Amino acid sequence: MKLSLLAACIFSLGVAACHPSAQLAAPDGFAQLDHQKSYDWRAASAQGVVLAVRTEKNDPRANVDFWADAIDVRLRRSGYNAEARKDVQSANGVAGKQLRYSRVEDQRTYRYWLTVFVTDDRVYVVEAGGDKESFDPAEKTVERAVLTVRAS
Predict the structure, then answer these.
(1) Rounded to whole angstroms, what are the CA distances from 31 to 45, 49, 50, 101, 114?
(2) Which residues contact 78 (CB under 8 A, 6 or more apart)?
(3) Is residue 141 one of the residues assigned to a domain?
(4) Partners of 63 in the beta sheet?
(5) pLDDT tens across 113-134, in order?
(6) Which of 6, 20, 117, 141 is the most buried (most CB within 10 A)?
């Protein structure tokens, strides 16, 4: 099933990047990580907050609502707690959906955001995550950085 293929590409760290073309403007305090096989672009802060982008063919061809819902279902089934969902826009004007989650592991809370942008040909997924204690102070910086993606 093609939906499973996209989900595998989005959530499996061992899968090669599907289309190395998307990137963000790395915010101050983040170092771009080179030679990323699972991502088109990735950066991390010294505190362990990570930003990443990956892309996949828009196949089956669907809109942003479909892809956001597909990702949401997958994450909820994997134990992530939905916190918020909002409409956003990329740097070049492509409408998107941002999904915000938390998850508790080993008595620590982690934050995980996925922002989805869809064009006729591509699905862009921007991921941001980290330990809540590190992520919360960086939230505004992460929020601004996520929206610098150019989906074309």
Answers:
(1) 6, 11, 10, 24, 20
(2) 11
(3) yes
(4) none
(5) 999 999 999 999 999 999 999 9
(6) 117
Q: Is residue 75 a contact partner of residue 99, using CB atoms and an 8 Å limit?
A: yes
Angle of the 2-11 helix axis to the 64-77 helix axis, nearest 10:
70
Taking the C-alpha atoms of residue 8 and residue 118, their distance in angstroms, rounded to an integer, is: 18
The model carries a pTM of: 0.83
Confidence at 20, pLDDT banded by 50, 70, 90: very low
Look-up of token digits 């996520």:
146
The domain that contains 95 carries what CATH number? 3.40.1000.10
Name the percent of the chain lying above pLDDT 90. Answer: 76
88 within some domain: yes
Sheet holding 50-57, edge to edge: 30-32, 41-45, 50-57, 122-131, 108-118, 95-105, 81-89
Mean pLDDT of 44-68: 95
- Determine the Cα–Cα distance for residues 128 and 143; give it in Å rounded to an integer: 9
